[in-house]
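yo, DUF4340 domain-containing protein is done. seq:
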Amino acid sequence: MIRLSQRGWNNVIIFTTLILIMLFNFSSDFLNRNVQDKPEISTLIPAGLVITTIEYQNDKIERIGQGWRAKSGKLSHEQLTQLVANWQNAEVELFDDQLNWQSDVKTISVWFAGQVKPITYSFLFFADKTLVKTEQKINQQTYQLVNPDFSQLNIDH
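structure:
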């Protein structure tokens, strides 16, 4: 057995620990090299925000007490509740392509409790995808609507 002082053994333990940390770090990169990352899914509505009004081009849905009412009166209370729940639970993922947003875009403004300005959502229909851009998202990135489809978020479906 090697005779080392206490200071020498301490150095051996420190260097061994550093080597193990580096080994674990590099093995993680090595083992996960071929794993494809799934796109990160987030929600369309930021967490913790409570919807008070959804403003469409031709209609408006407002929270009244614990219920909802549509300005046009087209939908029942249950349909309005389901529509708002669809908005609250809608999922999006980052979409990489840069597109021309000058074409036919549907805009919907959503007002939240405690906020002065609404968040305006712009929807673009591209091939079989529904793309979304908001004024509140960082760097004006484009997102793809994953679930539900746009017809379940639109009052005119």
